[in-house]
Design goal:
This protein is mainly α. Helix content is about 95%, strand content about 0%. The N and C termini lie far apart (about 70 Å).
Length: about 45
């Protein structure tokens, strides 16, 4: 029984870590695209 609980805890922790990593990666891409849009607008305004 203890091994089953440990295995489930390990799987849950791994899944939560991977999903958080995906979220952070997506947020970083969105911020990067926003920065690029601002830079492009600034270049056009020159």
């Amino acid at each position: 029984m203890t091994r089953l609980i440990a295995l489930l805890l390990f799987v849950f922790t791994g899944t939560a870590t991977l999903s958080a990593c995906n979220t952070v990666s997506g947020a970083g891409q969105d911020i990067s695209k926003g920065g690029q849009a601002i830079s492009d607008t600034a270049e056009k305004a020159k």
